[in-house]
Amino acid sequence: MPSLFTRIIAGELPGHFALKNDDLVVFMTIAPTRRGHALVVPRTEIDQWIDVPADLSTKLFDTARRVGLAQRAVFGCARVGLVIAGFEVNHCHLHCIPADVMANLDFSTQQHGTKAEDLAEAAALLGAQLHRDGVPGAIG
């Protein structure tokens, strides 16, 4: 059975994307800890990040770095946290979280029920910044 993320990537379920390319996508999580909380997800369904082939891993982490730079510019945060938990969905994903304090990375503060309009706006802002930064596949 396809993962939740595979279904989002395929367009079977709604998603608010900031970037799409042949290898990976970036979309907003539906339960952010902070505004702008984005996921970097390989298109290939791989359960654990330690099983991602080296070439794809390089692409994921480089994209996460570029997403973090864009998040810092757009959302005005002091830092961007990178979290790989691996328990929520059995499909590798990197959480890029705009943060001002360590507590911003606490998953117990997730904002369930975030409005689709708010996620769409955050995705549009992030995608536009990624586009300005020259990131291939940026939506904006």
Features:
140 residues, alpha+beta, five-stranded antiparallel sheet, 3 helices, 5 strands, 18% strand
Explain briefly what this protein structure is:
This protein is of the alpha+beta class and 140 residues long. It has helices spanning 4-9, 54-75, 116-132; strands at residues 17-20, 24-28, 38-42, 79-83, 94-99.
Would you give an account of this structure?
This protein has 140 residues and is an alpha+beta fold. It has three helices and five strands. It has helices at 4-9, 54-75, 116-132, and strands spanning 17-20, 24-28, 38-42, 79-83, 94-99. A hairpin with a 3-residue loop joins β1 (17-20) and β2 (24-28). The longest helix is centred in the middle third of the chain and has 22 residues, at 54-75. The chain is globular and about 35 Å long.
Number of strands: 5
**Global Rg:** 14 Å
Please bin the fraction of helical residues.
Answer: 25-40%
Category from helices, strands and their pairing = alpha+beta
Major beta sheet summary: 5 strands, antiparallel
